[in-house]
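Quality-control log, excerpt.
Job 1 of 2 completed; input and output follow.
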Amino acid sequence: MISLDKMILDKDSAVARRMIEYGRVDELFIIIPTKEERVLDLSPTVHITGVGGKRLQQYRRLKKKGIELVRAHEIHFITAQDPSWSGNIGRWLKHKTGATLELQLHGDFYVSNFYKKHLKDFIGYFWFAKRNIRSADRIRVVSERTKKSAIDLGVDPRKIYVRAVPLNYYEPYKEAKAKSKFHSDNPIKKQYHGYVKIFLWGGMMEPVKNLDFLIDVFSDIQRKQKEFLLLLIGEGSQEERLKGKVKKLGLDNHVKFVRWVDTLTVYLVNVDCVLLPSFYESYSRLAMEAAAAGTPVIMSDVGVANYELKPSEKVKIIPLSDRQGWINAILTI
């Protein structure tokens, strides 16, 4: 596996636990780009190598380590986490060794206008990635939306299979929900007392997540309902700028920033609603986890929206162009 997820190196992380489960079926060698060289065994059958170096060095070292592993262990199957950066390495390894190549598509990049506006992403996903996809023997997608996108791109449907990120739809959500049955037992309500409703967003604070829109919506909300609170849980390149915007708009009491935690279970079962106004989502685990917890979701038409998650009493899918629709949906939670 050629992965870009450095959380694999943390044995206690959710992704590391998932890799250990994969290792119960097949022996798994994972190579990832890291600043420092790292070698780690998550289990007797899951082996990780962080190649070390700067960006270009990482690329060369991933290719070198990949071909060493394929030949030393007679590896017959390669999976690359994305069709672009790691996909390039996967295609090269397939050409050199004859191994079967699987590319993972975690989103409908090719119909997303957001990525078409950014030159770096356009080159990566609309040029390199298309070439790599044509070379792949199998295409793994995480949702029906992504499958449709791949087919629209011209990928042979026989190459495509859907396998979402594994989710536990009942535990620990059921147990946690039971513990928070009564308002007085709700740890989030206790921590943020005095608010009538508490809303949650979680993830990487990057432009694609459209948090400016969400903050602007809450600026309008607080004029009508001053006892609503929005929790923004995560970090990213936009964090400091967004904090400045919240301060400038005088929303310090209505929008609070929370550092990322590995599991959002306690939040998901105790907040009143999850909000996801993204321009683009590959899948949106947060929406699926919220639905599993029985927590209402308001989201844009991305990822699992209108596919795995259908509109219902607890799932509202609203266009980003309909700002008043977002305000009304939030006010009626």
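Job 2 of 2 completed; input and output follow.
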Amino acid sequence: MVKVIKNKRYVIMFNMETGKEILSGIDGHEDPFILDMPSLLDIGIMGKCLNNCKICYQATNNYDSNMSLENFKMVVDQTKNTSMQYALGGAGDPNNHENFKEILEYCRKNNVIPNYTLSGNGLTDEQVEISKLCGAVAVSDYDQSFTYQALNKFLNADIKTNIHFVLSTETFDRAIDVLDGRDVWNGQFDVSKLNAVIFLLFKPQGKAKNRLDLIPSNDQIQQFIKKIREPKVSFKLGMDSCLVNKLATLDNLTKNESIFLDTCEASRASMYITPDLKAVPCSFSDYGTNGIPITKGNPISEIWANSEPFKRCRGLLNECKTKCPYMKEK
């Protein structure tokens, strides 16, 4: 099934089975740099987490509770006709939300694909079965027994499964080994069943806000670029837009890369919504400074079009599309 969003300037076609998305300007218009509404929503349905991960960027954002099912449905009702996918997250594993099943079902009912990332810690067989409603799931590369238990559960259930790999100075050598085709996971799961490894650039935020030493150097990024352009792997590879920014800053994108890769999409094609219903351009932005409450009188469409944090973020990206508006540099 293909979901289509079309207006006077552009058309978006999204294959809901494969996840392939095509965005194109129409009627003489160029491909849009900014969409009329976000096609991707990053929704923080989780308010708290018990995992205590040492570099968690959400660790300092504590909420009294998870996002309520009622509030989640309100977000869906406001965006179902303009969004293709919801990335479910927040300060904890989304599969532990008390209304996890109802959340995924409501996404599907409204023709939007849900995806989520988890640690894998405590994943149950029932949660795996429910996850079949997702387009894909991603397990964070913590190299723990629960990491591999979760990967095996998902892969054996024929769920499209990715690994999220945070690229930092500490994990750099491991990342190069992955790209060189070495099984850094030592046969803990069937790599041939894996859909993709997605590399995420380490950003100093939350619990690791002062760990500037973990930001990969330019030399490391350039080594990584060379390797990811000539990988020796059987699975797909991907990068978050923060890492694409670095690639585009340090090296020229090839013609194909320019077509298939995008730089920072915050406030351009995506937004983050906190568990207490505040909209921000990006999950790494300051929620206190940039967070705009979503209310009946101030819906997502109004925030997206006219709020100062979103307009400011777009202005910065218009000036330099590869410059992060929110992160500290070394």
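Post-run check on job 2. The longest helix spans residues 145-156.
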